[in-house]
Amino acid sequence: MKWHRIIIAGLLSSSILGCTTIFDGGPNVGVSRLGDGGTAVPAGTDPSDHIIGQREHPKIVASYGGAYDDRSTEIMLARLASKLLVAAGEGSSQLTVTILDSEEVNAFALPGGYIYVTRGILALANDESELAAVIAHEIAHLTLRHARERSNRERTSKIVDRVIGGILGSNPETDQSAARSKLSLAAFSQSQELSADKEGVKIAGQAGYDPHAAARFLGLMAQFAAYKSKSQSGDDFLSSHPSTPDRIELAVKAARGFGAPGIGATERERYLKAIDGIAFGPNPNNGAIAGQRYIHPNLGFVFAVPNSYELTNANASVVAVAKDGTAARFDSVFVPEDVSLEDYLKSGWVAGLNDATIKSTSRNNVPMVTASAKTKDWAFEIAVVRFEGQVYRFIFAAKEAGKRLRSDFDFTLSSFRKLRSADLKQIQRFELAVVEARSGQSARDLVARMSGVSDATALFNVLNGLLPGDQLIPGQSYKIVRKK
């Protein structure tokens, strides 16, 4: 696939934008569609910053499932980011903003003028000023050079830590998944976050947006974190940008420097119109969970885990955890065609491998090699599978070896097969829809339109920044999630 970038400022006509004065002679804001690094070099930065950003950009895009293409959202983002750059005193700069096709609530920056926002954070924000607060925060990280100073500390989920730490080697050349995990951006220091908060509020306020939106969105993030903690944990914006009372208090204090709440533009209706219809939740094309099954339309396979496991689709792997703590991980790895599965299995990436257990087999006409391993704390069952030119790994881990571990492992291996048309019918796709509340309608009435969505009432409240019992305002727009 050829990477390319679309520079919104250079391609959109005045009839599409309605007003192009913010672009004329102003900053060059690009919205990346398929991930090209372009030439986004902010003024006054080290040229090597751009080299870093350009090198890492396609890796970041790939690790988050690709770039998300939505014209109305791109137009809104380009307009918004352009205004913020002018307010930041970077009017001659260029910036590449990429919408990542991910449900995670995340936003971050790379050196060289690269800013990333996910579909998830677009869905959470309720107006343009809240998104402006997020983008201004990331621009502040760039102008303050925080992106270059960021530590390389990795952030992974506990279950992935357990499995990787127990059995995978550290050679990124033979462990593609471990290499992908290094793409997670480590958190900024607390002082850097607070500095970016303060500077971000200043930038957004000077751009004419509601300066109090930052504190409002931090509160919304805290509400979302509480909602998410009831389902599953994740590696997202909340972990690197915690909504602590200190941060909210600082944001409020910075905003009061501009005036009391009620000043500045929010552009709620314009924002909601721009995001109306965007995809919501995981992109099924990149792998979908349907009950106990994992279905991957693009790669053409399906497998299942026993009923006692809960499946989670992460960026670079699929993780399943049973109630007793038994864990499973599925991922992909690059293995040259001339390297046998057995040779790869014995190449050193497995700690505690029992060579006597290595066995070549085939299930559903899919060749695979299985083996057992044992470390101090964990027992493992491992399979390396070659399917349509790609190699995949199944790793099951438990505190102790036994029939249960082997039985669960065998069940999943036996379920791995080529995708059938009937499998695709099990995949559900969802989108964000903006609806207007009519007189007399309650939140319950709108929630009733969210069929197929689990915990719909809580999700409706958090998406709209509402608390239980809050009344809807007739004539105002609200977000719901519905099947496509």
From TrEMBL:
It comes from the Bacteria. PROSITE patterns: PROKAR_LIPOPROTEIN. Residues 77-250 form the Peptidase M48 domain. Keywords: Hydrolase, Metal-binding, Metalloprotease, Protease, Zinc. InterPro entries: Mito/Outer_Membr_Metalloprot (IPR051156), Peptidase_M48 (IPR001915). Its cofactor is Zn(2+). The keyword Metal-binding applies. The keyword ATP-binding does not apply. Pfam families: Peptidase_M48 (PF01435). GO terms for molecular function: metallopeptidase activity. This is Metalloprotease.
